[in-house]
Write a structure and sequence with these properties.
Number of domains: 2
CATH class of the largest domain: Mainly Alpha
CATH architecture of the largest domain: Up-down Bundle
Number of strands: 0
CATH topology of the largest domain: Growth Hormone, Chain: A
Distance between the termini: 18 Å
Shape: globular
Number of helices: 18
Length: 410
């Protein structure tokens, strides 16, 4: 099978000029990420309302990420031959139910149950949507389709969490979760109205199926394994540092809370710009895009440890935001190009590693902050991202499997 064949949309995909399915998937990723991250902006009022500490309430974010991380790699196998369109619609409805349970929670136990449901919905949605770009757009438009799908992640950090926080300030924190419960239902309706039928991809040849079809077999492909490891390093590093960026800016850089909020907005806008800049580049030169993204994160995290003054902080955050904004689309493009015949399975593993790295990175950063301070967390973030950059520079997305010694694709 040629590369052109493997990247062409299968039968039943929309024609290349129909962008509504791609935008519908972008809305789904926006809703998923906003729902996942909402406790970040509502931690204090949630804690007071439920009668628990901020640390306990913070576990609602951790449990969601861990459940999603466990389910993501197995999502294609769990849903089996079912039409991916129907599955996505059903699990976006489940996401809406999960947010509604959270909004109604009278205590932390019920809230945790809602967040477990959210993690299950996230795991399946992420495990399937990460591979949909090639099924919704043709070759010349594939890079833009991937960029649009992953723009939901960047836009969620700019609009989703701030809008939810603003709504909570006007009403209460439960209203924010009700809003995203309704958005989950709306997203399901949009997916149902716009997506074409998406049958399960054809199974690989029998002689390769036992070795490569299971999630544990995909990383034996060196290009896929490298892409997944690169993703793990940079996401671990990013969340080890960025999770604690607010106390860094307040305590170390001496900025007021209002200035910090403005700085984080600038960071988010830079992230959207980075997504739309590095996304198309990744479609042509994935290694270059990945190197730029990881190099920018490593550099910004190291510089922020010593930045003082609003101008310096803003400059560093622009670099960090623009760089991290391109991480999702560039690393997923690397994994997709490494083994295009098994996009769904490898993308599901990538999504699982991504979610696990969010949870573990935040945990690792907290441990470093408690023991060595904020600056040490930022330097840890820089070091982990630099390790990912080094691996990217020494690897290629077209690296063949161990039993396939043919020439690598650039």
């Amino acid at each position: 099978m040629t590369n052109a064949d493997t990247l062409a949309p299968p039968a039943g995909s929309p024609t290349a000029h129909r962008w509504s399915p791609v935008l519908a998937v972008a809305l789904a990723t926006f809703t998923v990420v906003s729902s996942e991250m909402m406790p970040v902006g509502l931690l204090t009022p949630m804690s007071h309302s439920l009668g628990v500490t901020d640390g306990v309430t913070g576990l609602s974010l951790t449990v969601t990420g861990l459940i999603a991380a466990v389910l993501c790699p197995f999502a294609p196998r769990l849903v089996g031959p079912r039409d991916r369109r129907s599955v996505l619609v059903a699990f976006m409805l489940l996401l809406g139910v999960a947010d509604a349970v959270t909004a109604l929670a009278p205590n932390f136990a019920v809230l945790a149950a809602g967040r477990v449901l959210l993690g299950a919905a996230m795991g399946v949605v992420w495990g399937l949507t990460a591979s949909l770009g090639p099924r919704l757009a043709d070759g010349p438009r594939l890079a833009l389709a991937m960029t649009l799908i992953f723009s939901g992640v960047s836009i969620a950090s700019v609009l989703g969490v701030p809008l939810g926080t603003y709504l909570a300030a006007l009403l209460d924190w439960r209203a924010a979760f009700w809003a995203f419960a309704l958005l989950g239902a709306a997203s399901a309706a949009v997916l149902a109205a716009t997506l074409p039928a998406l049958p399960a991809p054809p199974a690989p040849p029998v002689q390769e199926r036992t070795r490569l079809d299971a999630p544990r077999g995909i990383p034996r492909h060196r290009g896929v394994a490298a892409g997944i490891a690169i993703t793990a390093f940079v996401v671990l590093g990013h969340f080890a540092g960025y999770t604690y960026v607010r106390p860094v800016l307040e305590a170390d850089a001496g900025l007021s809370s209002g200035v910090v909020a403005a700085c984080l907005l600038v960071y988010g806008l830079a992230g959207v710009a980075g997504n739309f800049t590095l996304g198309p580049l990744a479609g042509r030169h994935p290694k270059t895009a990945v190197a730029l993204a990881l190099g920018g994160v490593a550099l910004a995290a190291a510089l922020l440890a010593y930045a003082t003054g609003v101008a310096a902080v803003l400059l560093v955050l622009v670099v960090w935001g623009a760089s991290y904004g391109g991480v999702s689309v560039s690393t997923q493009t690397w994994v997709r190009m490494a083994d295009p015949a098994r996009i769904e399975a490898s993308a599901a593993i990538w999504a699982g590693v991504f979610n696990a790295s969010i949870a573990l990175g935040s945990l690792a950063g907290g441990l470093v902050v408690d023991r060595a301070g904020n600056r040490a967390a930022l330097l840890t973030a820089a070091g982990l991202s630099a390790l990912g950059l080094l691996l990217a520079l020494l690897s290629r997305p077209g690296a063949g499997r161990p039993d396939s010694p043919g020439p690598d694709r650039p």
